From TrEMBL:
Compartments it resides in: Membrane
Keywords from the UniProt entry: Cell shape, Membrane, Transmembrane, Transmembrane helix
Classification of source organism: Bacteria, Bacillati, Actinomycetota, Actinomycetes, Kitasatosporales
InterPro entries in the cross-refs: FtsW/RodA (IPR001182)
Membrane topology: Multi-pass membrane protein
Transmembrane helix keyword on record: yes
Transmembrane intervals: 23-40, 52-69, 81-99, 123-141, 153-172, 192-208, 228-245, 251-268, 275-296, 352-373, 394-418, 424-446
Main location group: membrane
Stretches for region Disordered: 453-474
Listed PANTHER family: CELL CYCLE PROTEIN, PEPTIDOGLYCAN GLYCOSYLTRANSFERASE RODA
UniProt protein name: FtsW/RodA/SpoVE family cell cycle protein
Superkingdom of origin: Bacteria
Length: 474
């Protein structure tokens, strides 16, 4: 006698989406800037800011919309990227509003332009537009691999974005740097968007050419040197970065593009020689341009000794004031609204806004902000490691590398570690182009992480597995 039993297959347990974790973190990311806003109002005016309720509700609504879009269209995305970006953006608006309350900046603007307009409301408007663009990217970009089709179109688009600021009648010269274009009364910084577009080209190109760049090489003094024809891409990017530096006087964008390419090249080929070659070429190019371009030479001199030309050069005065801001902040800072970083002038809420952090929040606040930036970079690298396709891996590491380089060149410039670059601190500094571009960057990383963490579809059930005969002896 035998017994026949029916057994059915058990489906795989669905991976957790972590959206509730994201919602909880997002609540903290909204509450912390509101408390900071109240703290600034009490410190400067002795009372709560009159627009505190409107600001808090508006910021909470924008954050909630972003969360709902992620919950619906990127269910398995990384749960930390959106809360951290929200927290940084919210604190950035608070820092800008704190500087708007400075009587020194108000009087300076009235003497220079005849009137003064607060930057914080405009920054809040840019934040709303940025989160709307963030939602559009997640709605339209269903699969990041679609961007691979536009490899060479993206290269052309990046070149156009870089050329626009030097077009007569369209580009604008702001404090010696030609990195802006003026359209309909609004100023746009195309380089902020170019870093995303050119990352698409780098990822698509290196995915196809990585074997030739990695394997076809010659060994010299312990390094694997590439063939002459394989040096073409790095020479082209090097030349492009130098042209940006020469014609636009923009040291930051030049370092950003070339550094991002070298990082992606190293990740694609795993050849240390590319890092060495890239560093030598960047140092050589920067040295030549620094000796010939007057704008870059001024910034190098301000970096070497800002107090030697303090009374004769605006760049030296800004760097000197920034260094003194960090020094007066100490470990714990002077407190929200109690510093004097507004002495830096108009650049206090853009290029040098990190100096306000250093003075009013001290070394502790600086490390906290750098830790938040580091978490975004770490989650981007983790996303690259988890991505299942080579294009996604290179694209995620390129965006993370570009973000890391921008943090380094901005923080290093205002702290006196490297020459001043003129770039803006992501999410903190005043400016619509930076906020829009960085929210797009976060949206793309969220899309890649959603694809990487999404569970693989369960295999179709086999008819043979629906019933298993188990024969037991009677």
């Amino acid at each position: 006698m035998s017994v026949v039993t029916n057994t059915t297959t058990i489906g795989a347990i669905e991976a957790p989406s972590r959206r509730n974790t994201e919602l909880l973190l997002l609540a903290f990311a909204v509450v912390i800037p509101i408390f900071a806003y109240a703290n600034v109002g009490l410190s400067i005016h002795g009372e709560l800011p009159p627009g505190m309720l409107v600001y808090g509700l508006g910021f909470a609504v924008l954050s909630g919309i972003a969360h709902l879009v992620v919950r619906r269209y990127a269910k398995y995305a990384d749960p930390l990227l959106l809360p951290i970006a929200t927290l940084l953006n919210g604190l950035g608006v608070v820092l800008i509003w704190r500087l708007d309350q400075s009587e020194r900046l108000r009087n300076l603007a009235k003497r220079s332009f005849g009137n003064f307009s607060e930057s914080a409301p405009r920054q809040m408007m840019y934040t709303g537009l940025a989160i709307a663009l963030f939602a559009v990217v997640l709605l339209v970009l269903k699969d990041h691999r679609v961007l691979q089709r536009f490899t060479y179109i993206s290269m052309a688009g990046a070149l156009v974005l870089l050329i626009l600021p030097v077009v007569p009648g369209l580009g604008a010269d702001v404090f010696g740097a030609k990195i802006w274009i003026s359209v309909g009364g609004f100023s746009i910084q195309p380089g902020e968007f170019a870093k995303i577009v050119i990352a698409i080209f780098f990822a698509g190109y290196l995915m196809v050419k990585r074997d030739a760049l990695a394997l076809a090489s010659r060994r010299f003094m312990g390094l694997y040197l590439p063939r002459g024809r394989d040096l073409g891409p790095i020479l082209m990017i090097w030349a492009m970065s130098l042209l940006v530096l020469v014609f636009e006087n923009d040291l930051g964008t030049s370092l950003l593009f070339f550094g991002m390419f070298v990082i992606m090249l190293y990740v694609a080929t795993e050849r240390t020689s590319w890092i060495v070659i890239g560093l030598l070429m960047s140092v050589g190019g920067a040295t030549v341009v620094g000796m010939t371009a007057s704008h870059v030479k001024v910034r190098v001199n301000a970096w070497l000794d800002p107090f030697a030309c303090y009374t004769t050069s605006g760049a030296c005065e800004q760097v000197g004031q920034s260094i003194m801001s960090f020094g007066s902040g100490g470990v714990l800072g002077t407190g929200w609204g109690q510093g004097n970083s507004d002495l830096i002038g108009f650049a206090a809420n853009s290029d040098f806004i990190f100096s306000t952090v250093g003075e009013e929040l001290g070394l502790t606040g600086v490390m906290a902000f750098l830790l938040l930036y580091g978490l975004i970079i770490e989650r981007g690298v983790r996303t690259a490691l988890a991505a299942r396709d080579p294009f996604g891996k290179l694209f995620a590491i390129g965006l993370s590398g570009a973000f890391a380089l921008q943090i380094f060149v901005v923080a290093g410039g205002v702290m006196g570690l490297i020459p001043l670059t003129g770039m803006t601190m992501p999410f903190l500094a005043s400016g619509g182009s930076s906020v829009l571009a960085n929210w797009v960057l976060i949206a793309i990383l969220i899309r890649i992480s959603d694809t990487a963490r999404r569970p693989a579809p369960a295999p179709a059930p086999s008819p043979d597995s629906e019933m298993t005969q188990v024969v037991r002896p009677s």
